[in-house]
Structure formats: C-alpha cells, structure tokens
Design goal:
This protein is mostly helical. The protein is built from seven helices and no strands. Helix 1 crosses helix 5.
Amino acid sequence: MSDEIEKLDPKYSKNYSDDSFWEKIKGVIKTAGRVLIYKALQLYYVMQTSDCPMYIKTAIIAALGYFILPVDIIPDFIPGVGFTDDLGAIVAALAMAQAYVTDEVKANAKAMLDDIFGAGTSEGLD
C-alpha cells in the first residue's frame, strides 16, 4: 500500500510511518491538545479499514505525514498557533473520510487516547 500512496503523494507520504505517527502523538499531546490528537487518531483508524478507498488513504497519509513533519508552515513550537496548519490538514482529510468515520473508528480513537494519556482523556469528545 505505501508504494501506491507514495506514487500518488510523494511530498508528505515519505514522512509517514506507523512508528513516526505514534512518536508524534506521544510527543505533542500537551501542546497540540486532545481534539487534534483525537482527529488524527480517527484518521489513523479510518486508514486501517478495508473499505476505505485508496484516494482517501492517500489524503490521510498526506495529512498525517504533514502532522509528523517537524518543520512545516507554522512551526509547532509557537504557542497558541503552532498546530493550526496541522489541524487544517487533518480536518481537510477528515472531511474527505467522513463517510468512513464509523462508531467503531471513534471508539478505537477514544480508547487509544485514554490508553496513552489516561482514563477520561476522551471524555466529551465526539
């Protein structure tokens, strides 16, 4: 799958890997916020479904690759605005993938958020 995606989106797909995704998630929860992380996790779990088309997986990989990228349009370390560009990329991909964001995807994303950052972290998210 990754070879097909890299052909469609070579710019950001080369930054994506499962390991780099999980490292980024763990490293930014305090600064990025739980809503951004929850949306990124939703994309991750949508991408894992077998019925998600390749063009949507490509958009997801591009958005998550941009999120993982340490240097982007607005540097992540800038307080208050550092993750706005990342959020934009993730929201755009999520809009494309919305039909595949099932209750199961949401439950998996919430469970992982709670597992990584503590019970109750996902409370109030939808």
